[in-house]
TrEMBL record:
The chain crosses the membrane at residues 7-33, 39-63, 75-101. Keywords: Membrane, Transmembrane, Transmembrane helix. This is DUF4064 domain-containing protein. The lineage of its organism: Bacteria, Bacillati, Bacillota, Bacilli, Bacillales. It comes from Cytobacillus solani. InterPro entries: DUF4064 (IPR025273). Residues 2-85 form the DUF4064 domain.
Length: 122
């Protein structure tokens, strides 16, 4: 099955998410330079967790055609939900793209199944 829409949405969301995570790392560096190490550590840890989530989502989007559609859909929706609540403004776009890609991944390709069935009958 060809899952181009899920691949593109996951890839774009992953790239945007990684770039925004790098922006978060710059904010934590600015916090360290401003003599506020407590807040800078919190920002650095949260940004690192989001960076790992973004890399995982990017890898999953590259493997979309090799994974089960329900597994892919569930994992991408989970990545979107985990990215959304803490950093609403920074990770809003990647989170929405992950949730849409996950929802598309949960659907089954009925058109392809019907076409294969029609070819089998004829």
């Amino acid at each position: 099955m060809n899952r181009t829409a899920e691949f593109v949405l996951g890839l774009v969301g992953g790239i945007i998410g990684i770039l925004l995570s790098l922006v978060g790392f710059f904010f934590s560096i600015a916090g360290f330079l401003a003599d506020d190490p407590g807040a800078a550590w919190v920002v650095a840890i949260i940004t690192f967790v989001f960076f790992i989530i973004q890399i995982g989502a990017l890898i999953m989007s590259c493997l979309v055609n090799r994974m089960d559609n329900k597994l892919y859909g569930g994992l991408m929706i989970t990545c979107g939900v985990l990215s959304f609540p803490i950093s609403i403004f920074l990770m809003f776009v990647p989170s929405v793209l992950y949730i849409i890609a996950g929802a598309l991944g949960l659907r089954s390709n009925m058109e392809m199944n019907n076409k294969a069935f029609e070819e089998k009958i004829m």
